[in-house]
Amino acid sequence: MRRREKFVLASILLSLGLLAVQYVSLDWRYVGVILFTLLAYFISAWALSDDLQKFEWVTILPLPALYACAVGAFYFLLPTSLLSRFFDLLLFGVGMYALYLTANIYSVAKGRTIQLLHAAHAIGLLFTLMTSLLFLNTIFSQHLWFIFNGVLVGLLHFPLIFLFLWSVNLEPRVDKQLLSLAFFLTLILIELAIIFSFLPLSVWNTALLIMTFLYIGLGILQSHIQNRLFKSTLTEYSILAAFTAVIFILLVPLK
Q: What is the model's pLDDT at position 113?
């Protein structure tokens, strides 16, 4: 079976798996999501097995699984109409296929540069932010205690951040410096999640604000890893951070 055919088949199988998740009882929905995430991980391993190296089991495969987990958890918050479910499954399947193409580019490009690598980085960043947004929305929709919000944000975002940072240079190993940078940015997100837990913001506003800070952090760290962290780059991200802060102030009620 050719590689693209495996990607299409894997995307269809996972879309059917997502469809099956909606029929899981609400009491067992988190168990269903965990099983769906494991299914996504191993189906992704099969789909990408042609060029998969040992270290890529922890650098390439987790992102499709995390995306599936985020969509599976968020799926319970969506409208239950048939048309809505159909488009959700369609978008999920297309997203999985795009992720497989991106992961394949990463696997092929290790140790050398290919023309599609910049596009793969852009898609990887998009799905990292999208996955983060779905996770954040799901977490804050549960109205948990602030400690639980911080813990869940940290546990789910550390691998997301590390996977993106690894994809910048595609090193054939797990670099300790990348782990340290990922931990540092994750710690900032945890603190933001705890602070926002005490503020009267809507779930979507909270998720979007934290995701924006994630985007800023990833952009700065990416430039740092590529040795392109110039003054102009810092200025651009500082302006975005200031704009985000203004939006945040406008969103918080005065009373």
A: 61
Contact 163, 128 (CB under 8 A): yes
The packing angle between helices 176-196 and 117-141, to 10°, is 40
* Arithmetic mean of pLDDT, 97-106: 93
Task: Check residue 253 and give its pLDDT.
Answer: 66
The tokens for 49 are: 């097995």
Tell which of 110, 127, 143 closes a domain.
110
Structural domain that includes position 150: 115-255
The full length of the chain comes to 255
Domain count, the chain: 2
How far apart CA 163 and CA 46 sit, in angstroms, is 19
Q: What are phi and psi of 137, to 5 degrees?
A: -65, -40
98 & 159 share domain: no
How large is the average pLDDT for residues 21-49? 90
The verdict on 146 and 83 lying in the same domain is no
Same-domain pairing of 65 and 79 = yes
Domain check: are 218 and 150 in the same one?
A: yes
Amino acid identity of 133? L
Q: Of 207, 211, 226, 233, which Cα lies nearest the Cα of 74? A: 207
Residue 114 has pLDDT above 50, yes or no: yes
Sign of CA dihedral 55, 59, 65, 69: positive
Q: Residues 160-185: pLDDT tens digits?
A: 999 999 999 888 888 889 999 999 99
